[in-house]
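the two lines:
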Amino acid sequence: MSPLLETQNLSKSFGGLAAVDEVDFHADAGEIVSVIGPNGAGKTTLFNIVTGFYEHERGRITFDGHNIAGMKPNQITKLGIARTFQAVRLFPNMTVLENVMVGRHARTRSGITGAILRLPWTVKEERTTRERAQEILGFFGRGLRRREEDMAGELAYADRRRLEIARAMATEPKLLLLDEPTAGMNKREKDEIIELVGRLRRELGYTVVLIEHDMPVVKGVSDRVVALDFGRKIAEGTYEDVSRNERVIEAYLGKEHEETA
Amino acid sequence: MSAIPVAVQPVPMGRSVRIGLIAGAVSVYLCAVGIVGGFEGRNVVTGVVRLGRAMLILVAVAAGYALARPRRDESGQLIRTPLGSAVAGGATAGAVTGAALGALLLFIDNVEQGVFVALGRGLAELLSLGQSAPVGALLLVIGTAALGAIGGGLALLPATLRRPLLVGVAAVIGMSLAEPLLSPIFSELNLESGWLFESGGLAVTGAVVVFLVAAGISYLRAREGTAVRDRLARLPTAGLTSLRIVGVLVVLAILAVLPLLVGGFVSLVLTFVGLYVLLGLGLNIVVGYAGLLDLGYVAFFAVGAYTTAVLTSTESFLVTDEATRFAEAGAMGFWLALPIVVVVAVIIGLLIGAPVLRLRGDYLAIVTLGFGEIVRTLVLSDWLSPWLGGAQGVIQIPPVPPEAADFRDPQRLYYLILFFSLVAAYISYRLADSRVGRAWAAMREDEPVAEAMGVSVIKYKLLAFAMGAAIGCLGGAFFATLLGSIFPASFSLQVSINVLAVLVLGGMGSIPGVLVGSFVLVGLPELLREFREFRLLIFGAVLVAIMILKPEGLLPNVRRRRELHVEELEEEQYERRVGDEETGAPVLKASPNPEPPS
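prediction for all of em together
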């Protein structure tokens, strides 16, 4: 069986500096993969290329049997890839519920005629959109449901991260890309995210790729870990394998040891 | 929160003098540009006070009032003013104001007319109350000192008394200014209005009645207001919706009967307001909903007007048959032309939209600005003049409907415009709360993220331009039939700016805001004749004031209000967060309020 997402020889440089360099990456259906690496290793660039934010220079990207290289972000979303952002990027002046409802855009069809004339099927679609959005918010417990009419910009930090995941879930993805989902969170909230990622696979059948700095989280969620450094893949395997890999320790953990020592 | 500690301190002398100087400068300025002299022709309360002098009185009272209101020191500590100091300080500030005016009076008396035309005999008489200049100057100082002292005392009155007083005075001034609008209504309804209005202002009895009614309502509202608001807050959503529907119906009823009561001239003004409502609703979709700052919106106005003109004018190049020309009809009637006008405008909208798809914010504004100018230059050009008339424009556009004989009945057109405005408002309202509206809002908030959520940015930008063009061109179409002839000069950058100002004034993205903004910006200056000469000056001042005091516009939509009053919201949010500790949400930002609540 071919993997859900696969890149071959993927390369992208900024002003001569290789941000992603000949990276072969894949994620099988139902897998949870962590991408690790020091700052500037090209992790987010990899996400940006896969989701169509950046154009790549060389290499192939296939997703679910489609060649998605050169597609626009909205087309890629429609095929089934959703993402969150390193620095949370919500629509701050829309309500919590509206944020999630925007996520339903790719899965709904109503146009202006339907909206103006309130055609029966538009009304119905609008209602299902709302119900689906509320259902998704309910996935995160009562906290977000209670604030669904508040502006997204008014939420506390951890709730913003949760809402961003909820919005991504609303696009009904097959593959979910999480960019540092636990950044800035405390221990309890991190545990929550670990559990959430597990539930996303178990209950919704998602494949999840996450960029993560926090090693206990990486250990807690990943089936497989991919380590990048200077845009190159330097190691791949189980958490135990990768964390013992010398190049990884040198590039990533090693530096941290030196710093703390 | 614990009670805020309040200090009581007298106003320092320097502050009194400073505020007095500011008020003095304002007064002298108002005199020098001719506003005071010009407005003196208008009665406020007939036989008692006229508008010019009323303005000076207000400035002096306001000086004392501003001085004595509670203030804050550098550390944010609230300071109240004791009564004695308020009165004395107010008197000082007033006296300084008066001194400035007195100096102006002496200046006029001793120096012959110079640069400032407004500084002449008339003003001197107005200021000196008919006395000789030195006596007049002295009287001015004493009078304004008393006014300042009154202002100072007024500021210390408890809110339950102060509000009604201020509201009453504002109502008297407002009613007297509305006289040209209201008098015709009274006579149309055969109502006796002699007790209320007298020679262009309020009669004394009328002023007393207006004051008492307004003050009374304000007093009762303050007493009952909280109770009413509580009851409103407890209403279920369905109740609120029906309340809103009732409100809309009332406004509609007023709009429907208004032109019947106010007569031809005011009807014409209302028709122009209606044109701006149409333009505003169109631009509201482009700027308010989709966040695309379009400074060339006049292009759609021009396309609507010119397409209508060419299609319906008897002088149009489309009319070649002499017989048709004699029949006083163009290539087609207005109603046949209108759908074509909309289609043409949508096509132009897409043409203008296509090249700017990749631009955002400031860049988009500059490029659309250019497009607006290009359209104006094109209709003015010799190249297109065989078809569009160049500088001669297009004339002989028949009125709508043609049976309305020779005269262009503004009341008829008013209802047509009202109808189309309602349609446009309904469309905007529906779109705002739909999949399309959410896609626009998402695009406005964060374009790349909207795209990542599956929104085709290209499609929705073009859709916004097309919708904006379709609605805006209607304004142009009615403009053409209203005037009967159109010229390139009517389609200047000023139109784009005015429409944008309507949106800013009323509140971006707000449909009632468009109505209010159009009325204030287009309607009021026509109705307040004395103001016309100074309209730009006054509007400059009003716009600045609104942007400082209510940056979200007069009737904002909820979003903008939240966006622009961040500080208040942060405080609110802080309190709420402290309120529900059990959620354990980390407080990441330093709170704006350092005091922990007890």
